[in-house]
Structures are given as structure tokens and as C-alpha cells.
Design brief:
alpha+beta; five-stranded antiparallel sheet; 11 helices
């Protein structure tokens, strides 16, 4: 990196990759002194690239917020990482339209040789994870909730329930959670007086208010969302004692599907099920001995499963 132009371009890449970087670090990465770094910053300014220099002992350099640079400057590894991230995100259930348009934009600005290699990756990559048909939330709602959670600012939420009923409420958003292809917001709902979970794709509108709040020290949005989903009403309440340790049970049974607690003889699993034959299959697949507490109908479902398996074995 002996040519000054090469070092100026390298400084530009470093500024793109970091929100803010200290002058001493830039000098070390470029192999020059800090005076030369200041000269390079001035050179970038002359080229129309707004570099903000922060003075003082801990000063540094950054690009002006909102500034966009064409063309996109990506190495082979960076381009591969972007494409893989977008493809995986689409598979997990991130908004498909935004993913497709971003992929197209990235490919348009890549050099021809690299573009061909990236397209080959896209066309030949397979996934073992099934694609999710997620309902994409409105980008404005997602960003407004994220900003409100970071700034500890109350919002006025207009929300549509799964039945189609709309309601208005004031919410202190604690955080956002992406789970199983859907976005959730969790926080203190002033209408119910409780910590609640809301699907962001059902948010009709959200407006930041003037009120502020403090997030409780024990608040855990991820845990609250998974526990809330585990309590979604189904036809059957199920309690089963699994003869294993709590650590082993937690590795096999997702927190979003059941509540697990230590008890005499093993681990008490409390959950809900729409179909007891499916619950019987799940319990058999865990591979641990178990004791059914309720419902009694689950015992019949386990017997039916065992009889069916014996029938397959005798064929």
C-alpha cells in the first residue's frame, strides 16, 4: 500500500466500515502519521466525500450521516457475506420483497466476474431449513418501535387483533424480537397494566409520544415472547413428568412450546396441544421415560401410537 491514492481509498473503505474511527488507529492501519491522515481526509473532502473530523484527545473521523457512496465497494468475501445473509434471511422469513430488491442492487454494482460467481452461489445453494411464509410488518412501524425502545419513549399504538378488532393503547416498548418468521414487540401496555406481546405485522399505526419510561432491570423481551407464545390457548392442557435433567430437557424442548421446571422424579413439562396424537409422537421422540399427569386422554393417544408402531413392526 505504498501509493498515496491506494491509501486514500483504503481510508475511505475504513470509514465506510466503521461508524467512527480514531485518528491514531487510521494512521496505524494505513502505515502513516496522523498529519498524513488529516491530509487524506482533506483530499476526500475535495472529492466531494464529506468526512467529519472530531477534535480533541479522543477525536476521530467519520462519514457524514446519511451520505451514500456509489459504487458499492465490496471485496469477494464481503459480497459473499452480504448475499448469504440476504438468502438466509429470506429463508428465515424476513420480508421477501425487500430481500429481492437488495439482492438485485448488490448484484448490479458488482464487477462482472464477481457478479457471475455470486449468482452461481445463489443458484446452487440449497437449504435444509424449510422456507417460512412470513407476514412482513410495515417498515415504518418496525423502525418507529425500535427507535422508541432505544430512546425509552412511549408510543400510541393502533393494533388489530387476530379476530380483526382494532384498539388503541399506550405502550412502553422494551424491545423487538424476531421469532419463527414473525416480528414481535414487547413492553408495558398501559391499557391492560401488564407486560404484553404484540405482532408487529398487526400494528396498524404507531406514533411516538412525549412520555418516557425506564425498562425494568429484569425485563427480558426474548424470554417474554417465547413464554407468551407457549401460553397460546389450545384444546388440551398437558402436564408430563420427563425422567431426565432440566439441562437436558431444555436442550430438546424449546421454551416457546413448553414450561419446564424441576420436580420429584425429573422435569415437569407444562404445555398445550391441539392434537393429542401429535403430543404422543413428540413424547416418544424425546426418548426419555415419562409419566402423564394430565389429561387422561393422552394415555389413550400413547397406547394408540404404541399399537400402531407394533403393527408396522409385524408387517
Amino acid at each position: 500500500m505504498s501509493h498515496p491514492t491506494t491509501r486514500v481509498l483504503t481510508m475511505l473503505e475504513l470509514l465506510q466500515a466503521h461508524h467512527r474511527i480514531r485518528g491514531t488507529e487510521l494512521a496505524e492501519r494505513l502505515g502513516v502519521d496522523e498529519r498524513t491522515v488529516r491530509r487524506y481526509a482533506a483530499r476526500l473532502e475535495e472529492l466531494g466525500i464529506p468526512v467529519v473530523a472530531e477534535r480533541g484527545r479522543y477525536g476521530g473521523y467519520r462519514l457524514m450521516p446519511g451520505f451514500k457512496l456509489p459504487p458499492l465497494m465490496l471485496t469477494d468475501d464481503e459480497a459473499t457475506a452480504v448475499v448469504l445473509g440476504l438468502l438466509a434471511g429470506r429463508r428465515l422469513g424476513l420480508p421477501g420483497e425487500a430481500t429481492e430488491s437488495t439482492l438485485a442492487k448488490v448484484q448490479r454494482v458488482l464487477p462482472a466476474a464477481l457478479r457471475e460467481r455470486v449468482q452461481a452461489l445463489q443458484e446452487t445453494l440449497g437449504f435444509t431449513l424449510a422456507a417460512r411464509d412470513a407476514t412482513a410488518p410495515a417498515t415504518a412501524a418496525l423502525l418507529t418501535l425500535a427507535a422508541a425502545a432505544r430512546e425509552r419513549r412511549r408510543v400510541r399504538l393502533r393494533y388489530r387483533s387476530w379476530q380483526g378488532d382494532e384498539s388503541e393503547r399506550d405502550l412502553d416498548p422494551y424491545g423487538l424480537v424476531f421469532h419463527s418468521g414473525r416480528w414481535y414487540a414487547t413492553g408495558h401496555d398501559h391499557r391492560s397494566g401488564e407486560v404484553r406481546t404484540f405482532r408487529v405485522d398487526r400494528v396498524v399505526s404507531v406514533q411516538p409520544g412525549e412520555g418516557t419510561f425506564e425498562i425494568p432491570v429484569d425485563a427480558d423481551p426474548v424470554q417474554h415472547v417465547t413464554r407468551s407464545l407457549a401460553k397460546v390457548p389450545y384444546r388440551h392442557d398437558v402436564e408430563v413428568v420427563l425422567e431426565t435433567s432440566l439441562d437436558e430437557a431444555r436442550r430438546r424442548v424449546p421454551a416457546s412450546t413448553a414450561t419446564l421446571t424441576e420436580t420429584d422424579g425429573g422435569v415437569l413439562m407444562v404445555t398445550r396441544a391441539e392434537r393429542l396424537d401429535g403430543m404422543a409422537t413428540m413424547l416418544a421422540g424425546l426418548g426419555w421415560p415419562f409419566q402423564i399427569r394430565r389429561p387422561d386422554e393422552l394415555r389413550a393417544a400413547v397406547r394408540d401410537l404404541a399399537a400402531g408402531l407394533r403393527g408396522y413392526a409385524d408387517k
